Structure formats: structure tokens, C-alpha cells
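Our consortium's second objective concerns turning raw sequence data into structural hypotheses that experimental partners can test. To show how far this objective has progressed, the report includes one record in full. It was chosen at random from the queue rather than selected for favorable results. The single chain below, 109 residues long, was entered without modification.
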Amino acid sequence: MDVNCALRRGAWYRVLSLTPNKVVLDVIRDRVPVARRWLQTSFEPPSRWTIVSLPEDAVSVPPEWGNRYAVCPVCHTRAPIKDFQPTMGCPHCNGVFGLAWDEQYLKRR
């Protein structure tokens, strides 16, 4: 679901409370309630780059990045995606990781 709810796409947030319908997240020491259906919940951090489709009202993203970018699984740096490459190096932490091209949220677009 492509919604704006005060969260960075591809980011990880600590869960403060969880009900069947709502999650309260710790976002820079602020409690942010979010509908649970809007989130992908995982109990372990990613091992691959998260691919983020740019929302129409995106800010602070260089226009030359096009309509998507990736988030590093280790240091959370955002980086442009050049092609449908299988792996990519992080310009910040220098790690090399696969890209999560098979994620379900990408198939819905």
C-alpha cells in the first residue's frame, strides 16, 4: 500500500506496542501510531537492499535517481539503483549486498 504516514520507506522502527489493528512505533523518540496493514513486519533485519518506490510527493531525493532507490541493510544509507543488478555496493559502509527484487510489494506495482 502506498501511503504517507510519517515514516521513511525502507526504514526499520522499534515497535512500542502492537495490537491486531495498530502498531505504535518509536520514530526519533516520538510515538507514532500506524495501521498494522500498512507495515511489513519482520523479526530480523534485512540481509539485502530494500527497494523503495518513490512517492509522488518525495522530498530530499535527487531527481537523477529516477522513480526508485535502495536502502542499505546494514547502515540504512539510501542509494540510487542503476539497473536490475543482482548485487550492489554501499557507498557508506562499503558492504556488498543483494537487492530484494523478489519482494511482494514490488509485484503489486
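The partners drew two points from this record. The mean pLDDT is 85. The helical segments are 104-107. Both points have been shared with the crystallography group to help prioritize constructs.
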